[in-house]
Amino acid sequence: MSAKDVPLFCCTYIVGLLIASGFEQYWLTITLTLILGGVILLRVAPIYHWWGFKLRSAWGIIFITLLAFLSFHLRFPTTAENEISQIIPPDKNGTVVTVTGKILDAPTFNQSGKLRFWLSVKGVKDDRRKYQGKLYTTVPAQLETQLNPTATIEVTGYLYQPSPPDNPGQFDFKNYLQKNGAFAGISGREVTVIENQNWGFWQLRERIIQVHLDALGSPQGELVSSMVLGRKAVNLPYHLQDQFLKAGLAHFLAASGFHVSLLLGVVLGITRHLKVSLRFGIGLAILILYVGLTGLQPSILRASLMGVAGLLGLLTERKVNATRSLLVIATILLLINPLWIQDLGFQFSFLATFGLIVTLPPLLEKWDFLPPTLASLIAVPIAIFPWIFPLQLFNFGTVATYSILLNVIATPFAILVIIGGMLSGFMGLIMPSLGSAIALLLSPFTHILIGLVSWFNQLPGSYLLFGKIDLWQLIAVYGLMIFVWQFPQGKPLWKLVTIGAIALIILPITYQKLALQQITIFSTDEPAVILIQNRGHVSLINCGNENTIRYTLLPFLQEQGIQTINSAIALSPNNQWSALNNLVTLNRLFYSRILENEIQNISDLKTTLKQGIGVNNTLVDQQRLNIKQPNPGLLTLIFGEQQWGFLQRPENRLPTVSSEIRKTDVLLWEGNEINRSWFQQLNLKSAIAIANQIPDDLKQEITKEGIDFYFTGKNGAIQWTPRRGLDPMLD
Q1: Whole-angstrom Cα distance, residue 38 to residue 16?
Q2: Are the beta carbons of 584 and 562 closer than 8 angstroms?
Q3: Strand pairing of 634-639 and 686-690?
Q4: Do domains 84-198 and 516-728 have the same CATH topology?
Q5: CATH number at 84-198
Q6: pTM
Q7: 516-728 belongs to which CATH class?
Q8: What is the C-alpha to C-alpha distance for residues 667 and 645, in angstroms, rounded to an integer?
Q9: Interior/surface letters 577-614, b for 16+ CB within 10 angstroms, e for the rest
Q10: Nearest-CA neighbor of 388 among 265, 256, 231?
Q11: Per-residue pLDDT reduced to its tens digit, 598-654
């Protein structure tokens, strides 16, 4: 293998891992990926052309692709006989145990306010078998000061196996654990520290965080520490993390190439009068220290190795090929751990660096009339954006509308905070009081950053739920971008290709919204939450509490790109409409008469048209969709040829049933009981209960009537479309 083969083979290995990681879910797109990948790979090394391709290189590509498949699947976590999850009885969801293990990372807070960390299992109390494995562990927040990385602890709590998601778009916790090498979690009640390590990078990290907290307080202190060490190493309040994420500044809080380049730039600037060999040694030592402080995160490892490549170039007085270095370093890391190909931090970091390498130079060349500093401030976010935006839509389906503008404005303040935070942290390791004094100077800049983020997030349309794109769109858009970058024929057509890429993203999602007819009955606690999509018009029956909105409804709205609820219907007092209205627009809210005082007093819904529901009141009357309340306690929904009925008080029966109501095809109710006479009064085809458990005799009676029966506790969310009919999430 010659040096010219290296980029080609690196790309082959990376693409092979990408295909292997998505094989089960995206097998239909493998052929497209291979064809597109083949064309791209042949252009990476300029000596290769279709007609002059060397046979040995072809065999090399085949071998490396197979190596990628094998390395990924051999390293992908699977359960063993002595894996800790095996202790859970097959007929139960979990069991109470006492586990001994070692903390693997810095404990941080989850959204529920509990401490979370990974625990490497060493044994189970009162069980002679030698259980091993890894547990996702949550414990009460008050234990924060007692728990440190590398500590050996004993945890008593509920050991559980996560269930697959039961709602569309919902976070797949089971898959998340498996990607991290775990198959169970433990919700700890009691923790006993058996042994605490008295040394390690974690002590230095805690000291730096304390220096910032002493000077700036909370949350400014945690913000500075997060911008220096990354939010995975710091307990930054979740609401502040969320604000930065929505504003498009999440990269400020993730230790990455941006931080490494600033750190290395400052170090090389300070040591510019020293010998090259000494500068190399100091730079290398600083990078090793920084990696140790931030933890072995894939993105920071990649950035640090790129920094080492730059230092080697300085030492040998040779120019470093940035593209080749990036590919080689990414490949080395993925050879060490192929599973990092699934790490979003690694993916975004790689693409952002790639965008800077290939897109920034031509932008700076075009804007040479601007002062260099100003040109760089504007060009950097613009160069990165097109390379990370498709991946962002594929994974999250959201758009931070003002992110480029905010990045241009906020980056100078972020640079000051990061450099100042690094300097104060370093000095704080030697003399804490001096470090805190330096950190105190950062106070105005942290307030400016927080203020900018807050102000931009309050602007109209600052955070759009665009909708997730499909894998074929992702591949096609990146294919067009690489066509412009690598193929001579593509460069003159860059404007046309850009328009084509935008169309590939927007048109399919727009068409889907305008064509989709779908009803989704979510698997939730009471009240029942039902969303109806009718060719761009969205109706919502109930929204649930804040947890239901955050963990069930919002992920679905993001996936579908639903920014506006045209008609909302409140049938229960247990709805948090204000929380939902902070995320999406509510055009009109209908409410049951018993909720009139409650709804009218919600100050956050001033711009929403509110209207009470009366008998025979038609709430929605659209093409092929009609929602009305023919009787108190019954809501009917006619969607095309299908008629649905939603019982608000299922234990009651109507004194009379009209011929129109008798035509109901699908009956819904919440709770585990219903007046059985409904099944004789209506000519039902299907029945759906929004409940966790249903009595066996009720199931038998419904089945005896020849009615298809579903309930969310067993079947999860249930969706209906004219083509598929009723489609439960779980079998």
Answers
A1: 11
A2: yes
A3: unpaired
A4: no
A5: 2.40.50.140
A6: 0.88
A7: alpha beta
A8: 5
A9: bebbbeebebebbbbbeebeeebeebeebeebebeebe
A10: 256
A11: 766 676 666 667 777 766 677 787 777 888 887 777 888 988 888 998 988 777 776
